[in-house]
Write a structure and sequence with these properties.
About 45% of the residues lie in helices and about 15% in strands. It has eleven helices and eight strands. With about 280 residues, the chain is an alpha/beta fold. The chain has one domain: Ribonuclease H-like superfamily/Ribonuclease H (Nucleotidyltransferase, domain 5). Strands 5-4-1-2-3-8 form a six-stranded mixed beta sheet. It has a two-stranded antiparallel sheet with strand order 6-7.
Amino acid sequence: MCTQGQIPLWQSILMGVRLGGWKRGSMAVMTCYTDVGGSLSEIVLSPATLVSSPEKWQEFDRRWNDCLCAFEVSALHMKDFAHSRGEFSSWKLDEPKRRRFLNALMWIIEDTVEYSAAVAIYVADYNRVDQKYRLSESLRPYTLGCMSCAARIIPWAKEAQHDKNDLIWIFEKGDQDQNDLRKRWEIAYPDHFVDPIFLKKQDVYESKESRRIRPFEAADLVGYENLLAHRLLAKKGEKRLFENLRKPMQRLMKLKGGDLWGYLSETEILSACSMSGIQLR
């Protein structure tokens, strides 16, 4: 169950010459991991991206594994944790343990993640705009959310003096419409050398042993909390009712970049159509 001390093959590669780096011989600087909460059947689709250096991600992996070992679970699956299923089934009535576990994980995120981005795409609003504009043919909800996260990260990277081509973009493999993201990414960032990389939650190590990519679990935590927050805000009919948010969400929004987390409702999606030149139906 517990795995310690070994760096996965994909990470050892990224700590050396970055993908596409042969064009400039440059080194990986910052790695961005994205996981998406919710689905097209939900109120919102909630992508979250966490950014840090390879060295800090290595520290993150060590501490995250240690925490999971201490609580005797193999991985964080937020749906299982939230509903006390799977490895968390015996925790249902143990709120102090659940709170300690979540707090420990958030401390790790706070200590090791250098920047964060999260966006909520309101699905019903997207569908209303899609009735007027050729939106779904041009920009799928998954793509819109992920690229909205990227649009928040790239200005921060520039301000922090990271070249745009030193950002590695890694997305959890398997979400709907990832081919659309590949195509739109090339259109939006034609001068970027690094394309999106799609990996499963588990990756193969040099020993051929399959182990988990832990940063996806942290992004899952942020994305799920963001999903819960917007479920509540939609239910209350107010999108800025901060004081009613769960305490974990209030804490996560204090991460660097948290002040720019946002949502795309009908107004913002219409604006995106206008800026992108998406045609009326």
